Amino acid sequence: MKNWLVLTLSALVVTGCQSIPAEQQPSQSTHQQQDDATSTPVIDTTPLAALLPTEPEPPLKAPVVVELTPQQEADIWQRIRRQLSLPIPAQARIDAQRDYYLKHPAYMNRVAERATPFMHLIVEEIERRGLPLELALLPIVESAFDPFAYSHGQAAGVWQFIPGTARQYGLDINWWYDGRRDVYASTHAALDYLTDLNNRFDNWLHALAAYNSGGGRVSSAIRKNKRAGKPTDFWSLDLPRETRAYVPKLLALAEILKHQEKYQVSWLTIPNKPYLEVVETDAQIDLALAAEKSGLKLDQLHRYNSGYNRWATDPEGPHRLLLPNENAQHLQAWLTSADSKDLVRWTRHKVKSGESLSVIARQYHTTAQAIQQANSIQGHLIRAGDYLLIPAASRDLNDYNLSADQRLSATQSQQRGAYKITHEIASGDTFWDLSRKYNVNLRQLAKWNGMAPTDPLRPGRPLVVWLKDDSKPSGITRNIHYQVRSGDSLARIAQKFNVAISDIEKWNQIHRSNYLQPGQRLKLVVDVTRVGTDS
User: What is the pTM of this model?
Assistant: First the structure.
């Protein structure tokens, strides 16, 4: 048995040697090869692991794709885009508005730039309430996201509230503060109003139309169509021209955003993260001081907080400021160690004979109520010799460029024609009468003065009137102040300036029986084309 095994192994060795291809063998005889193989064994050095059977490698797993939620998008436009829900029908009115926006990309970039600080807080509040994200685009239609926008219909702010509706939804309007221009407060009020309108009509297009023209008008249009047997959808209603274009504007913007690739449009990116943070103070704060302590420029801070009309927040509140995150932290750190009396500069005023709270308030650009509050005064009685603490601005009032007074001054100073005159409003004046008197457009006259045509005219307020080169008519009046000289009488002054004695009496609240004192100043409304203005 052993001999058989040996022979078998020998045969295998010989067979193995013979299996080498001929072209790889050295030129030797077969016997010589056998002798070499016997004398020098060949050792296989292949590693054992290589000879063992190997497990097949597992197939590569496909990469896991995690889809971002709308809230995780980097650009807030995409966050809005992914949540648009209102159907957009094929309508020529939508097409017309869409074409307008597509032809004016620079306009949309300006709008996006103004929207950047506020868009995140608006979107967050819309999502929190579960409302259509199309509503985030509504301030574009209303105001182009300009918080200082003021329309011919007395509507103000990015959401364009008129005074009545604003007060109905909790927005105060007073000398210090206009809640319509407070983006934070007006956003909450606008979404409350829109929610109420949608609950009323159970139709978002009807609600949007009512936001523009009023719920009563939309209800009336619906009833009219029902009586006539006509459809009552928005597109079938007989509504004002402005409203008929208003809803299509919003839907056109939504369509462009939803199909950006189709229209090859890319709006200016707005980062999808909080831009502004709310800081609450315990008392009235000077905006210039808040800017200084937060590290912001005054105009920047006032633009974020456009609801404040003057140099400070309203003494009665709100005392809320919106600031970029880092600046908010700086201000908050200072407020933790500051006393409420440190938030404005205080002036000690000695009451003079004849002074009233209103006179003192005008002198320091504050209100009688603020002085009463600061000094715990009940009523309006003050005595000469008393001392009052008056809250006053820390900087020159001209530095508060975005206060109501400075904005009005800038508006009235804009060149609108070749020749400017100033008209001081008298009791009974109306825009209609003044537009006819000066031969100018009524709406333009109101716009030159930062007003709406329906705004009331307050006696004593100056209005600017711009005229063309060829329209300087006779009868243009100008308000002047004349200093009474020795020997003057009402009759002599009236004759000199070609006015009536009764008018001088009315303008100055005096009677002809009163004696004129040298040095006394009289207000006169004179025709600048018929008398000199150097008197």
Answer: 0.75
